[in-house]
Design a protein that fits this description.
Elements: H1 13-22, E1 27-32, H2 37-47, E2 52-59, H3 63-71, E3 78-83, H4 88-92, E4 97-100, H5 116-133, E5 138-141, H6 146-159, E6 168-170, H7 173-187, E7 198-200, E8 207-209, H8 222-233, H9 235-243, H10 251-268, E9 275-281, E10 290-298, E11 301-306, H11 315-342
Parallel strand pairs: 1-2, 1-4, 2-3, 4-5, 5-6
Antiparallel strand pairs: 7-8, 9-10, 10-11
Helix pairs in contact: 2-10, 5-6, 6-11, 7-8
The structure holds nicotinamide-adenine-dinucleotide and (2S)-2-hydroxybutanedioic acid.
Length: about 350
């Protein structure tokens, strides 16, 4: 939660109540892949949002029990479960935000790109349904490899004549959440005050934390920059290895995705001061049609891509930015080509 200058601002309890009242129970959120590790926990967290009036949970299996379970929480959102392709349209009808968390996660030894073969098809199928049944919705894509699945989604929506670049997001909030946690711990800063923008993409060295732009301003030694950058870039793999075959990050991801859903809903609701980092269509780096940057979220999704953060970055970051370009470009091209080959 940031002020216009990019400095984190903490909402006072009173302001939270006002925000909640302004949009109380107005928004419908659909979560696709809701029976999964990310999906279940995300569904629970979104159920806790006072901005949500309806929560639609879709999966190919095992979602009715999740919906029944979550529906017993005494918060306003009405919960409904939808199982299998025949119920996909119903799950999407009238959605303001559609979150795609469907697909396979990594196991140790795999890269996110190893998931492309399965997840690209799943994302394409789901966004085509979004085009048909929730054409105005914001689409949050969690399914990996995000560097490619977002271009897949954009291209698939284009083919359906339903693409609005302001409304398609790769969820990279977990990179920011991790960067904030690791920097606060390393520098002994109060967690709530720390804000580290993370740009680029969501895989290995394409994840570029801008420690030079971290707030509050803190001096980092070269060694700290290298260690923190590597830790943030490898944090997903750290979890995959710790889970030892049982999947990848689910709980921290759900926390991060819930933060991004809430930010998007506040934007839709007219709060004029909502900024988050996300992987979106962008001209910030001309060679890279998709790039994670801080974006301003408004009534129609992305209101502004804040490119200014790349100005005045450190030499280390500038080198890392140059180095990430070929991999990120190849991942983007792979996603676009995948959809074009299906036609
Ligand atoms: P999971 O296997 O626990 O859950 C995936 C769910 O998707 C399952 O319930 C499955 O039934 C469902 N599914 C599969 N095909 C579907 C389809 N066609 N339609 C609807 N649902 C379908 O996996 P998970 O741990 O929840 O991870 C989900 C995805 O999120 C993975 O691709 C993972 O890599 C990604 N992820 C991304 C981030 C990020 O930062 N963006 C973080 C964590 C996980
Ligand atoms: C993450 O960053 O935790 C996710 O992208 C999941 C993964 O495969 O690492």
């Amino acid at each position: 939660n940031l002020s216009k200058s990019g400095v984190p601002r903490r909402l006072h309890a009173a302001k939270r109540v006002i925000v909640a009242k302004a949009g109380a129970g107005r928004y419908k959120v659909a979560i696709l892949g809701a029976a999964g590790g990310v999906g279940q926990m995300l569904s629970l967290l979104v159920k806790m949002s006072p901005l949500v009036s309806a929560l639609h949970l879709y999966d190919i299996a095992n979602v009715e029990g999740v919906a029944a379970d979550i529906s017993h929480c005494n918060t306003p959102a009405e919960v409904a479960g939808f199982t299998g392709k025949d119920e996909l349209a119903g799950s999407l009808a009238g959605a303001d935000v559609v979150v795609i968390a469907a697909g396979v996660p990594r196991k140790p030894g795999m890269t996110r790109d190893d998931l492309f073969g399965i997840n690209a098809g799943i994302v394409m199928e789901l966004v085509e349904a979004v085009a048909d049944h929730a054409p105005g919705a914001l689409v949050h894509i969690i399914s990996n490899p995000v560097n490619s699945t977002v271009p897949v989604a954009a291209e698939a929506l284009k083919q359906k004549g339903a693409y609005d670049a302001r409304k398609v997001f790769g969820v990279t909030t977990l990179d920011v959440v991790r960067a904030n946690a690791f920097v606060a711990a390393r520098k002994g800063l109060p967690l709530a005050d720390v804000d580290v923008p993370v740009v680029g993409g969501h895989s290995g060295t394409t994840i570029l934390p801008l420690l030079s732009k971290a707030r509050p301003k803190a001096p980092f030694t070269d060694e700290e920059v290298e260690e923190l950058t590597a830790r943030i870039q490898n944090a997903g793999t750290e979890v995959v290895e710790a889970k030892a075959g049982a999947g990848s990050a689910t709980l921290s991801m759900a926390y991060a995705a819930a933060r991004f859903v809430e930010a998007s809903l506040r934007g839709l609701d007219g709060d004029g001061d909502v900024y988050e980092c996300a992987y979106v269509q962008s001209q910030v780096v001309p060679e890279l049609p998709f790039f994670a940057s801080r974006v301003k979220l408004g009534r129609d999704g992305v209101e502004e891509v804040v490119g200014s953060e790349l100005r005045g970055i450190s030499e280390y970051e500038a080198r890392a930015l140059e180095a990430l370009k070929p991999e990120l470009k190849a991942s983007i091209d792979k996603g676009v080509a995948y959809v074009q080959q299906q036609q």
